Each structure stands twice: as structure tokens, then as C-alpha cells.
Amino acid sequence: RFFVTGACGQIGQEFLPFLRSKVGVDNVVASDVRTSRKLLDSGPFSYCDVLDKDNMARIILENGITHVVHFATLLSAIGERNPALALKVNTHGIQNVLDLAAAHGLSVYAPSTIAVFGSSTPRHNTPDDTVMRPHTMYGITKVHQELLGQYYHDRYGVDYRSLRYPGIISANAPPGGGTTDYGVEIFGAALQTGHYNCFLDSDAALPMMYMPDCLEATWQIITAPRDHLKQTTYNVTAVSFTPAELAEAIRHRLPHFSISYSPDFRDSIAKTWPASIDDSAARQQWGWAPKFDLQALADDMLTRLAAKYKVQLPPEL
Ligand code: VAH
């Protein structure tokens, strides 16, 4: 049975129904510090602040949990607005999860991020094992998570697994305060106003992935046979593009779409992250292969959001 923290977040919202479709609704207990009617009606839910270890222990033991999927976290941009809270939630949350995993023999999946890298890391085709000196509180806490996960794996035998997500683009769930959020906002603006003022500069290249690929990658690493895995944390990516290149892909379907640039502090964060990453270990060891490239991602986002906003897309050229 699975326990999912951060079920209301960008990834949690979509991973929850995906996981339930794989293992059965009643085999997944969702949790968060917020909830919604939709979430409560969708299956088992328990209120859980990841800082409250006793409550987490109660939920895990009373529900016979064997796997924890730990999504609760503060992302890069929101973390810079409140570094003290990001430090607390991100480090204590994973520590509580790992302590309970060690005590009760649980498996843990907790995502990491390309934000673990910094300006002294090679920016192109960044390998799995390289310099990790991040500049954001979010990145610092995720380096801590990676090392702690490895430590609990080596010392207490915890089956800890992690993917370094790139920016994740999704049509359903809004992102929650990251540097890569522009990649989602741009589609809503393109369809609703025809214009987007981007908070990153035109040339800020970042690795990205479409949500369906993210869900598959996450499921694949969770279910991969342990003896195929030679490391606890893997780079994964699908495509890399700049805001200008994404705008171009949108113009393919919406020729009148325009973009302007007003880079803010998030552009300075983006410039310290890799422009592209090397995920060959994930491809070799557990068969990672993304399905969506830039144009496929843009077309699918526009089709889904046009239906949501009831906007007519011009016929394909
Ligand atoms: C962020 N979307 O922007 C997150 C991500 C690739 C970075 O972890 O903070």
C-alpha cells in the first residue's frame, strides 16, 4: 500500500490518479496539508503535515503502508521567498519519511531536481555524478535529500529511489512556485490573450519534460527491479528548450502568438541550472525513453487547454 505526501501539488495531483489506476484506489492513501472535495471523494485521504512525524507514523502503521511517495516540498522560486520555511519543510519532511522507512521497512520514492546543480556544474549534458553546489535553498535541501537517501540506503537498507526532475509541464495541474513555471503559464496566456510576458529571458535554456513522461518515469523507477539499479538517484530528461524556442513551437499552431521578456530573479536562478542533462544511466539501467519532444508537447498542451478554456484552435496547417 502506498502513502503519497503533497497530493495537492503539481505532480501529486496527477500522479495520484495514475498510481491508483495501476495499484487500485484503496491501495493509495493521499495526504497533504490542504485538500479539496474532489480529492476527498477520489479515495483514501489523511491530513498530514510532513513536519509531524507522529501523525505520519500513525497513518503509515494504521494503513499498512509499504511504500512512501514523498512529493511535499517547497520549490525554487517560492523557497527564495521563504527560505526558512523551505529549509524546514524540505529537510525535516524527508528525514521523517526516511526515519519511518528505516524503522518499519518501507520503500521510499522522493524526487530530486536539476536545481541540485549550480553555476560551477558543467552546463551542457550534465552527468549524474558531478559538482553539486546549488545557489537556492530548494537546491540545497535537495542535495541534502539525495545524500540522506543514500545514507539511509547504505546504513539501514532503506530502498530509497529518486529522479532528478527537469521542469515539468502539465495541462491539468498548475505548477507551485518554480522557476520553470513559465513553461505552463505561457500556454494559458497564448490561448486566452495571444501574448505572454516571460519572467525568464529568451535564451534561458532548461531541460523539460511533459507530465505523461514524468508519470511514466516515476512509475518505472518505483517498479524497476532493485538489482537493475546501480545508484539511488538518476538524471531524467526529455527535451531542452529556451522560452524563444517554446514560443516558436506555439506559433506553429497559433501564428499570431507574441512573447515579450521581463526577466526577474527567476532568470538568475535558471542561468545557474543545466541547459541540458545526460540521462544515459536511466536509459541503460531501467529503460527510460521519453515519448514527447518539444512540438508534441506544445501541440498536446494547446489541444487540452483549448478544450478547457473553450477556445477554438485554428485548423492545422
Ligand atoms: C522549479 N520546477 O522550478 C522546479 C524544478 C527543474 C526545477 O524542480 O523549482
Give the structure's gist in a few sentences.
45% of the residues lie in helices and 16% in strands. With 317 residues, the protein is α/β, with parallel strands linked by helices. It starts with a strand and ends in an 8-residue tail after the last helix.
Blueprint (SSEs and pairs):
Blueprint: E1 2-5, H1 10-23, E2 28-32, H2 37-42, E3 45-47, H3 53-62, E4 67-70, H4 76-81, H5 83-104, E5 107-109, E6 112-113, H6 137-156, E7 159-165, E8 167-169, H7 182-192, E9 195-198, E10 206-210, H8 211-223, E11 233-235, E12 239-241, H9 243-253, E13 258-261, H10 265-270, H11 280-286, H12 294-309
Helix pairs in contact: 5-6, 7-9, 7-12, 9-12
Bound molecules: (3R)-3-hydroxy-L-norvaline.
Protein traits:
Rossmann fold; binds (3R)-3-hydroxy-L-norvaline; UDP-galactose 4-epimerase, domain 1; 13 strands; 16% strand; three-stranded mixed β-sheet; globular; alpha/beta; 317 residues; 2 domains; eight-stranded parallel β-sheet
